[in-house]
Amino acid sequence: MTPVTVTLTLVRGDITLQSVDAIVNAANSSLLGGGGVDGAIHRRGGPEILRACRALRASHYGRGLATGRAVATTAGLLDARWVIHTVGPVHSATEDRSDLLASCYRESLRVAGELGARTVAFPAVSTGIYGWPMDDGARIAVRTARASAPRSVTEVRFVLFDDDAYVRFQAALAAEG
Ligand code: AR6
């Protein structure tokens, strides 16, 4: 299951400008859009993505997408074949929700594998509006991607929006390999 071939890469930039097979969206359980990465993906990807999300809500995801799960739609106008929507946990100072954050990466990669995606771009899930500390979010992201990327995925690209996030992911990559 654990591939020897997956390469973890870091890019500083905007995830909506990446050319990959699958772009992961840090969504919320409504699947109907929001701010941050989610807003940017729907803006640049156009209305087709929202239409696909509405169709999911009308069928298998009537109650929305649970935290830690992932589901794919078209990528609309983005330079990708799919958007994989995942719902990160809101950070809590009193409850350890790390497993749910790890699950976002694991489930997104599982869906990517099912689709046959080779290259997958992730944002730093939960580290924006959901308040997860970047150091810890980076550690969980790197460790989980390394451990759970399916054989078909050759590159997991973390797309970091600012220098601080980039530096913290660099440190996590150095520490976690
Ligand atoms: N490209 C790459 N990274 C980005 C971009 C971008 N275009 N825009 C923001 N980031 P967030 P969350 C970074 O808030 O914390 C939405 O309303 C950002 O700096 O997008 O999982 C959803 O609908 C941060 O480091 O996601 C949910 O309600 C990281 O991406 C909620 O926000 C994630 O920030 C999800 O919150």
Tell me what you see in this structure.
The chain has 177 residues and is α/β, with parallel strands linked by helices. The chain has a single domain (7-176), classed as Leucine Aminopeptidase, subunit E, domain 1. 39% of the residues lie in helices and 19% in strands. The chain has helices at residues 36-45, 47-58, 98-115, 134-148, 163-176, and strands at residues 7-12, 22-27, 70-74, 82-87, 119-122, 155-160. A six-stranded mixed beta sheet has the order 1-6-5-2-4-3, with helices on both faces. Strand 5, helix 4 (134-148) and strand 6 (155-160) form a beta-alpha-beta unit. Helix 3 crosses helix 4 and helix 4 (134-148) packs across helix 5. The radius of gyration is 15 Å and the shape is globular. The protein binds ligand AR6.
Number of strands: 6
CATH topology term = Leucine Aminopeptidase, subunit E, domain 1
- Termini, distance in Å? 18 Å
Low-confidence stretches: none
Core attributes:
alpha/beta; Leucine Aminopeptidase, subunit E, domain 1; six-stranded mixed beta sheet; 5 helices; binds ligand AR6
